[in-house]
Amino acid sequence: MCVDTNDQYVVFADIINKITRSSGKIAPILLVLSTSSLLLLDQRTLQIKYRVPAAEIYRMSLSPYLDDIAVFHVKASEFGRKKGDFVFETAHVIEIVTKMFLVVQNATGKPPEIHISTEFEANFGQQTVIFNFKYVGMSELAQGPPKVTRKANRMEIIV
């Protein structure tokens, strides 16, 4: 990885879907957890798009449903104010949250908060967005990925 940023050791790596803050659309991206940070890379060129030091991640939010979505909350530092929190969709949500938990705990000496709820807030730069998860049961919708829609300051996920 990168010796000058102390990201030599990879803890976890996977191609996941990043849910865009603006529209709720998904974009595939390579997520890499190193011993000191979260890196998001372009899956084709392997160029680093974002690097978030582990100490900047203070909470992870999940719904109680099988929607494979996790929100990583970033402190309101210079980076966090510009971009805000990250929203991911992955079949390996438990593994990513577990590994990130350990990386943050090792980097800061204290564990990040884990928040499980059908509704929570996320920071998208200059805006606070409310995530709302709705479970519709066994319909034809349940066969595919969750349906994500963004309306004003609400992100609705139908599972």
Give me some keywords for this one.
2 helices; Myosin_TH1; mainly beta; PH-domain like; 159 residues; globular; TH1 domain-containing protein; cytoskeletal motor activity
| CATH architecture call | Roll
- Please state the structural category: mainly beta
- How much β-strand is present in the residues? over 45%
- The number of distinct structural domains comes to 1
Write down how many β-strands occur, each being a DSSP E stretch of 2 or more residues: 12
Order of helices and strands: EEEEEEHEHEEEEE
| Major sheet description | 8 strands, mixed
Commentary on this structure:
By secondary structure, this protein is mainly beta. The chain has one domain: Roll (PH-domain like), CATH 2.30.29.30. It is built from two helices and twelve strands. Strands 4-3-2-1-7-6-5-8 form an eight-stranded mixed sheet, with helices on one face. It has a four-stranded mixed sheet with strand order 9-10-12-11. The longest helix is centred in the middle third of the chain and has 16 residues. The N and C termini lie far apart (36 Å). The mean pLDDT is 87. It holds the Pfam family Myosin_TH1. One of its GO terms (molecular function) is cytoskeletal motor activity.
